[in-house]
Predict the structure.
Amino acid sequence: MTWLRPIDIWFAQRVLPYENLFVRQARRWSKNAEEATDLVQEAYLKLLECEDWRGIRDPRAYVLKTIRNLVLQRIRRSQVVAIEDIPTPEFFETRDEAPGAFDIVAGREALAHLLADVEQLPPACRRVIQMRKIEELGPKEIARRLGISLSTVETHLARGMHQLMKMRRNVTPAHRSDEADRLDQQEKNEKRIFPLR
Amino acid sequence: MKSLTRKRVSGITGAMHHRYCTDPVVMDRAVGQQDEIDYQAAAWLAALECGTADRGAFEQWRANSAAHALAFIRAAQLSDSLALLRDASPEAGAAVADSERGPTTSRRKLLKNGALAALCIGAGVAGWSLTATARNARTEVGERRRIVIADGISVELNTDSHIRWDKEKDRYDVELVQGELLIERRSGSARCTVHCADTHIEPALARVNARLNAGTVEVAVLSGTALIQGSASASPTRIESGRWTNNSVKGSPRIAPLSVEEIDAIEAWPRGELQFNGERLADAVREYNRYLARPIVIADPAIGELRLGGRFSSTDPGDFLNALNTIYQVQAHMESRRIRLSRT
């Protein structure tokens, strides 16, 4: 059941949890929500291509630095540079490892959104996703219960997961300004910040 | 087969726009590409789950581009998040309670076991107890399962194993009742403690393997750090990545470094593999038998002293038996209830 490589596990553990932070910071620097998502994606890809990933001590700071360099690159390429466009080495937030009250609420909200997404799937597809992912039945058992072939189960699974991934992409943190605002507020209350070198 | 899946995955492109891009808005090319990669990732995950994927072709696809690898990580994460809906959706819960049978995966049976296990485990760390609401998960011999305990906390359950878990305020308690588990705790997740016999393990962001082996608790911190407490009275020890503690019921715990080979051997089981690094055949067979409904029996004690290495499927001993025959001329006699090894 585990198909992730060591680098994938490391990435999922040490990088992805900070996605909201990356997108927010990218948006501040690039002043463009869509571009912010692209920047984060580009920084992720660079990291996943990095052969010496084990040597990266602070992956979060590493990603932020990469994003900033990408913004600088883009600005240089655009040639028309206004002083205010240059990303200042802004303060980075640090975050407690344990989830705060906000994270727990956000986690619940995220689950509610996910449930709503699942309910939007076509009925046959939803049934298979529900049995496989939520009830955690084996694919063969699902095929038996629904009286369909294993390959049909596989097709529903693939389509369902794809649709859900697509819906997820449309709810990137960059588009959820209310959440970002709340986080910005929370950030102001946080004392432990350090500058990027 | 295997090329089938590959063909299907790489042949998606044309059909995709029919099936999924019905939105009148003209899709940006980059978005279209990303969408296609997402579909491939979802298709690979489905094929792997259904056992129809060609692993080689999959690895090739993943190694081909970081964008593929990233999409696959996201698909796997989405899969984990969906498992969390189990608690959030009453509808899903009802469907589970209605479902019957399937000796190994029946949730109803598991729920019943949970209700029967309405006892408090008072020993160990203060405040640690599991109540009637504790959930149960079991695996049969040869079976493996992945269980998402909470956001960012997942458990791989090895063959013939049993865990119970419960939530107390913001903390999760997981009890290893029998067998072996590999727990992974990610950043931002709730606190959790793994209890096995007298040993209590609190993983920081870490991957920790724990095994109950004939009264002995074996804990391996594969990455990250964990606090390990040998008994209620002992003070916790901080174990860094790659350290191993062997915690006998009697006697004091031992802490020793963990070699790369040992880490590899432990990391092999969640992939359905067994890795030997020159163990005695008697020990290797004992390990293999944990996974086999029809056990291997060594008829000639001298055979038990042979040493071997290699990586084998944990559920299909065919390659293992062939290797023994080729290297040591050991014969495997397939009997109805056992596989007997002898020199003749």
